[in-house]
Design a protein that fits this description.
The protein has 508 residues and is mainly beta. 6% of the residues lie in helices and 31% in strands. It contains 4 helices and 37 strands. The strands form 10 sheets. A 6-stranded mixed sheet has the order 1-14-11-13-12-15. Strands 17-26-25-20-21 form a 5-stranded mixed sheet, with no helix packed on it. Strands 28-37-36-31-32 form a 5-stranded mixed sheet, with no helix packed on it. The chain is globular and about 70 Å long. The protein starts with 50 loop residues before the first helix and ends with a strand.
């Protein structure tokens, strides 16, 4: 298991007010204190300088995917299940593959607790229990019930009344060393009408680094184009959610206000939720119309009180911009106004795409009055962002999107392109023991040529170090655990070699 020591953090601006996360049904427990980083709004925080780079690496055209629902998919329940238990629940001893970074227990997880992916799963096999009397969260990864104990890859126990983080460099039941349960979308939150916490999500490749509040990384990639574990993203304020269902608007509002936290390697933009028979899968599928381009990374470093605590600084200052979006013809003007709440100082500073006063490419804005003048020609991209930053609190920022249009009539739309070739791979994750095998299947769509080339960590057919894969997709693990403990199996379309799909294999 790879390790990393936390870096130095800088105190910057404050965030918006926190609100208590809804407790589990039948429980009086809070899911961490209201001022915990999971429960703190980040819609007023500045965009990270690495935002566009990370979004492009994850996939700006990749769809948002709700990785939860009702019923079965490929025979397995959809989502991450959990159970609530009383304080009298029997606790069971547990043994771990990564015992040096796991809480020794015992664990109040019933031996018949639901397993992520079902009892026959070869995936992450998370098992989660919430003690609703003592407000203790128990989480297991790669969990296998025994006669009177648990065998697991790793395990973590969290006091839901505390802001304490795991020791630096320690994993948990999740790759980032974070708890899983606080980041799940739960249907009882939909019933309550609001989700008041960040949402857990995954990406295919992460950096060999982590940022607060994460405690662990799971990668050997050192390039800055890869996001670190713990990175926070949010849905752009300018994204219009009015056309979505009431359920999806609750989810999308949370993605704007609280965002999502990078917790594990997996598929692009997969957000996590709890298994529940009440989900409407067809309705949730509408969320896949969003893409990575609709999101931005957020700098939350200003919220940190202590690198070993999940407590987040709070602030009541906020800024809103009206109108929140507008179309402006080239060389035309548009007046924007800013409303500052929580401070007697209502002055703001205006910028366009981060440049105070703007420029001739993206348009000019009076840095005091908010009068925007569009550029003489349509910029590329045509949509720019106007920001109003509180002069009382630099971390309080409001924004509006501006689409610059040409005064000439638009040309007729081009004919629709033929559907692009796409590749999917199943399963998307697997745990394989040394010397053992796992069968992967690649599906090529929108092409009569269904053949693919298989790679392991970029090497066609793999090798003895990372494992080998046959032309039919049968992967054979190496005799020794590879660097990082995981490899990537990739299927590349022969019809279009720019199209591929990947799966993560944890070698045990």
């Amino acid at each position: 298991m790879v390790k990393h020591i936390a870096g130095t953090f800088t105190f910057l601006a404050l965030a918006g007010l926190a609100a208590a996360q809804a407790p589990p049904i039948g429980s009086k427990c809070t899911v961490f204190p209201a001022n915990n980083i999971w429960n703190t709004r980040i819609d007023q925080l500045p965009v990270s300088p690495s935002s566009s780079t990370w979004v492009n690496t994850i996939g700006s055209a990749k769809p948002l995917h709700p990785d939860f629902g009702s019923g079965l998919y490929d025979g397995a329940p959809m989502g991450i299940p959990y159970v609530t238990v009383p304080g009298t629940q029997k606790k069971y001893p547990a043994t771990f593959d990564y015992a040096d970074e796991s809480d020794p227990g015992p664990y109040a997880v019933p031996l018949n607790a639901p397993i992520e992916g079902g009892s026959a799963s070869t995936g992450d096999r998370h098992a989660i229990a919430v003690d609703t009397d003592n407000c203790i969260l128990y989480e297991l990864y790669a969990a296998y019930p025994q006669t009177a104990s648990w065998q697991a890859g790793s395990g973590a126990i969290f006091n839901l009344s505390s802001d304490a983080l795991r020791p630096a460099t320690w994993t948990s039941a999740d790759a980032a060393g974070l708890p899983i349960f606080p980041g799940l979308v739960r249907y009882d939150e939909i019933v309550a009408g609001a989700i008041r916490h960040a949402i857990r999500f995954t990406v295919p490749q992460t950096q060999k680094a982590y940022v607060w509040p994460a405690r662990h990384y799971a990668s050997s990639l050192t390039g800055s184009q890869y996001p670190p574990m713990g990175a926070r993203f949010r849905l752009k304020a300018s994204f219009n959610i009015s056309g979505f269902s009431a359920t999806n608007q609750i989810i999308l509002t949370a993605l704007k206000q609280y965002g999502m936290m990078l917790a594990d390697n997996g598929s692009s933009w997969y957000i996590s939720g709890a298994t529940d028979s009440r989900w409407n899968n067809d309705d949730l599928h509408a969320l896949t119309t969003l893409t990575g381009a609709d999101f931005e990374a957020v700098d939350v470093s200003s919220l940190m009180v202590d690198p070993n605590s999940g407590q987040a600084l709070q602030n009541s200052v906020s800024v809103s911009v009206s109108p929140s979006s507008a179309s402006v013809a080239a060389d035309a003007t548009k007046q924007f106004t800013a409303t500052v709440t929580g401070s007697a100082n209502t002055a703001v500073r205006w910028d366009v795409n981060g440049t105070v006063g703007g420029n001739s490419t993206v348009g000019f804005i009076d840095s005091i009055s908010g009068l925007y003048t569009a550029p003489a020609s349509v910029p590329s991209p045509a949509t720019v962002t106007v920001h109003a930053t509180s002069q009382a609190q630099a971390g309080a920022v409001g924004s509006a999107s501006v689409t610059v249009t040409s005064s000439a009539p638009p040309p007729p739309p081009p004919p629709p392109p033929p559907p692009a070739v796409s590749v999917t791979i199943s399963p998307a994750r697997a745990n394989v023991y040394l010397g053992h095998t796992a069968q992967f299947t690649a599906t090529v769509q929108n092409s009569s040529n269904h053949s693919v080339t298989w790679q392991v960590n970029g090497t066609v057919g793999g090798n003895s170090t990372v494992g080998k894969i046959s032309a039919s997709g049968l992967y054979t693990a190496p005799s020794k655990i590879p660097s990082g403990g995981a490899v990537t199996v990739t299927a590349i379309s022969a019809a279009d070699t720019t199209k591929s799909a990947s799966a993560t294999v944890h070698v045990r």
